[in-house]
Structures are given as C-alpha cells and as structure tokens.
What we know:
By secondary structure, the protein is mainly beta. It contains 1 helix and 9 strands. The protein has one domain (22-174): Jelly Rolls. It has one helix at 3-18, and strands at residues 28-30, 37-42, 52-57, 65-73, 80-108, 115-123, 130-145, 151-159, 163-174.
Amino acid sequence: MSSGFIRCSLLLLLAGGLMAYDMPKGWRIGGNRPNDYEMGVEVGSGQNGKNAATIRSYRKEAYGYGVLEQRISSDNYKGKRIKLTGFIKTKNVDHWAGLLMKVESKCTNPVTGKEQRKIIAFDNMYNRLISGNTDFTKYEVILDVPDSASDIEYGARLTGAGQIWFDGLKFEVVGKDVAVTSSELKEPTNLDFNN
Length: 195
C-alpha cells in the first residue's frame, strides 16, 4: 500500500469522526459560535439505550456557545404557561449548560422599518447552571406566553468546552399555580447592596 493511500484513508476516517452526528428533523443549530460545536443525534447514547441529542465542542478551550433548538408558532399557547422538561448529561463542561426557552413577539424596527423579533420571556438556566460531569438529570424551564407572542424557541445550550446529551423532552401547558423559572426580577431588589 502506498503512503498516499494510507494518508488519504486516515483523513477520511478523521473527517467521518468529525461529522458523526445527523441533525434531527425539525431542529436547527444556533448560538454565537455554532461552528465551534458539533451537534446532532448520537444513536444509543440516551437513557435506556435510546437516542439523544448532543452538543460537543471541537476544542478543549471554547469561548462561545452552541445551541440545538426548535422554533414553533405561539398560536396554540397564547395566554398560557408552558413547561419544557428534559434530561441532560454532561461531560467535562468547563463553563455551563442548560435547557433554554424563549418567547418572542414580532415588531417593527423604528430605524430600518424591517420586521424583527423581540424577546418577551426567557430562561436559559443561567441561575441554575450545569457544569462538570453529571449523569442524566431532570430539569425544567417554565414561562408565560403573553397574547403578543409570535414564536417560542426551546432546546439546549452548551457554553464553553465539553459535551452534553439531552433526551426525554416534554413540552406541555401547566397551570398558573406552577411558578415560572425565569430569573428576571419582578420588582427592584437589594438596591442598598446589603443582601
């Protein structure tokens, strides 16, 4: 065998290893540095040997974040409280990871006159982040969907280096007796910095 053939075979194997995941139907890649992450479905890596979605950094040091998300219309959820539940497993996550959900409305940019989206409810678990090495654990994000909403985005996020797997997602309407998980404050708090 020629050394050129062996080199070419090794390159093909490496390229195949870097593109090992297929994108799940209906999902998309996002984040501020999506090209720093590999995302998709890892067959058999979920709970009980089922499939799981995964986000993995290409580098040992990563400074952005990658998101695997889905966007739906808010039409069936206006005026309701919604809950996203899912299980996340982490490996060598050096910054943080979590589920995320945001509710958006459409508006017109006063400068450009173009239609754009405005976030009106948001939770990415920043106030209860996941890091390090963890086994599959259940998490949830709960938000209100105002009548002015146009879209709902949800999924999972990895910030920095490492890898996460997520599965067992459930999206449902819950009662108003279930508290929202958004970290937004409702009233001014600790203005004298004593707490």
